[in-house]
Amino acid sequence: MSNDHPPPSLDELETRLREARRAAGLEPPPDPIAGQGGGDRSSSDLAAGLRIGVELVAGVVFGLALGYGIDRWLDTKPWGMIIMVLLGAIAGFMNVYRLANRQGYAAGFDKSRDSRDGGE
Fold it and tell me: Tens of pLDDT along 81-115?
């Protein structure tokens, strides 16, 4: 038995799989703006970079404000501010670490409950 037509190409197969996933609701519809010019990857990289910067600055600024308040309340200038700025910087670095490892803001450092509980 001979085949008169060649097998479908991988591009055709990928297109059909993408359409099937989209029909099943497993893949979001294509973004018409992402296909023009900049692309989706560069905008998500920019968003991640901005978020990293905000996480670092927010931790330090919050620590600075809290330390200033503690110093005024307890009259401990400048120790409260120094300690709280350091703690804020550490918190900012921890948030960036969690962001880089895609852990989100879940408690602990495990990525999922299944890996911690052995899949049970």
Answer: 999 999 999 999 998 998 888 776 666 655 555 55
Contact 86, 62 (CB under 8 A): no
Q: Which residues does 103 contact at the CB level (< 8 Å), separation at least 6?
A: 109, 111
DSSP 8-state assignment for residue 7: P
Domain positions in the chain are: 48-104
Rounded to the nearest angstrom, the gap between the alpha carbon of residue 72 and the centroid of all alpha carbons in its chain is: 37
**Contact 57/92 with Cβ under 8 angstroms?**
yes
Q: How far apart are alpha carbons 64 and 75 in whole angstroms?
A: 15
SS3 content of the chain, % helix, strand, coil (to 5): 65, 0, 35
Flag whether the pTM goes above 0.70.
no
